Amino acid sequence: MESINSKNIILGISGGIAAYKTPELVRRLKDRGANVRVVMTPNANEFVTALSLQAVSGMPVRTEILDTEGESGMDHIDLARWADLILIAPASASIVSRLATGSASDLLCTLCLATEAPVFLAPAMNRVMWGKPATKRNVSQLLDDGFLVLGPGVGHQACGETGSGRMLDPLDMIKLLEEQISKPPAVNKILEVMITAGPTWEALDPVRGITNASSGKMGYEIARAFQQHGCSVTLISGPCNLDTPSGVRRIDVTSAADMFNAVHTNVSKIQIFIGVAAVADYRPVNTESQKMKKNASEMTITLVRNPDILASVASLAEPPFCVGFAAETENLRNYAVSKLNKKKLDLVAANIVGQENLGFNAEDNALLLIGKDTDQQLGPASKATLSRQLCTIVLKKYEEKNST
Question: Residues of the chain with pLDDT > 90: what percent?
Fold first, then answer.
């Protein structure tokens, strides 16, 4: 993983309560060997002082576009050229909006327009603000423009609410920043990636159905990871109570048949397919139009096999690079190898479910990656971390397969 040692970093601070974390962030960046210059928006001064940031960075803090003391009076251009990267933390809803429109209304926005260095955003705002369509549109536009997004995290917020929108803690942010600048093998074109996620629901009647405990979290994090690596991502999701990752195209489905149809309607231009969804193997032969009554002491329901979505994609005349997930309760390696060979996949990511704090509905997971020349354990770790690791490996394997 590439270090930020000796990197020239502009830390841009916008107005938000999370700005109180920035002196610690500066200190941690310098501990990693980075050269840090701080730029503040006018509102940032309401939450953290320039003096404290100058003390920890050892450099003057900039707030104005024009520097009359600079040699040319155009020091903002010199600063934009100096930067190896720009990190905006916190990135408030306001600055996200301004950047999405190409505004040059303050020094920080101007630097983002004037630099050729990558720009990273660490969003920080109330969960409702983060979830609003306007914010999603702005973030999507910035991703399309080449900005990179770190977070946000999920947790307790200064407003007293809990949810998505919390700025990442400094050490977590720096770790993710270093992962992002350690780019995977170069991809010369935008890859089209399709990911299935979540459970399916096979209706018995209007109120009952056959489903499973999948939360969709792993699939959604994988979609986020590939999108952040510059891929065009289509997420086909069973019933999930999760926010769509920024910049990801999401198609909602209910049953296995719905998912099968959505996959094959959109798969023709896909280069990488990752089947993370926990698809029901069987569905009822008959679905009652009215709620079934408990008239008898026993009930027999006849089930029929659902189509195998992953196998059907892998068996296409020109299949994409196919990655399957195998959720097992025992014999993990044997079942993973069997699935790899039977369905003719490129990789299988197998995980044990039913263990405490891992798998379905948990925040953490552990994966066993099995392929023709791959046998690798990932985790236990957070699903976000595992997804970034998996993304890097899949892109590398895809490039290797398509370079021969």
Answer: 52
Beta partners for 350?
326, 368
Q: Helix H segments across 217-331?
A: 217-228, 256-266, 309-314
Number of CB atoms found within 10 A of residue 36's CB: 23
CB 185 within 8 A of CB 399: yes
Indicate the domain borders of the chain.
8-181, 192-402
Distance between CA atoms of residues 396 and 204, nearest Å: 43
What is the end-to-end Cα distance of the chain in Å, rounded? Answer: 26
- Residues shown for the chain: 404
Question: Per-residue pLDDT for 46 more than 70?
Answer: yes
Q: How many Cβ atoms from other residues are within 10 Å of residue 297's Cβ?
A: 5
Could you read off the pLDDT of 11-22 as tens digits, one per residue?
A: 999 998 999 999
- Interhelix angle 133-144/93-100, nearest 10 degrees: 50
Mean of all residue pLDDT scores within the chain: 87
Q: Which residue has the tokens 């809990």?
A: 162
Q: What angle do CA 46, 47, 51 make, to 5 degrees?
A: 90
Amino acid at 152: P
Q: Is 159 an annotated catalytic residue?
A: yes
For 8-181, CATH gives: 3.40.50.1950
| Cα(256)–Cα(279) distance, integer angstroms | 6
* CA 95 – CA 326 distance, rounded (Å): 42
Nearest to 278 by CA among 384, 200, 368, 348: 200
Burial of 348 (0-12, 13-18, 19+ CB in 10 A): buried
CATH class of 192-402: alpha beta
Kindly name the residue from 159, 231, 322, 391 that is annotated as catalytic.
159
pTM of full prediction above 0.85: no
DSSP3 helix / strand / coil % (the chain, rounded to 5): 35, 25, 40
DSSP symbols for 21-43 = GHHHHHHHHHHTT-EEEEEE-GG
- Topology match between the domains 8-181 and 192-402: yes
Q: Report residue 179 as tokens.
A: 């992962």
386: its two tokens: 């595992």
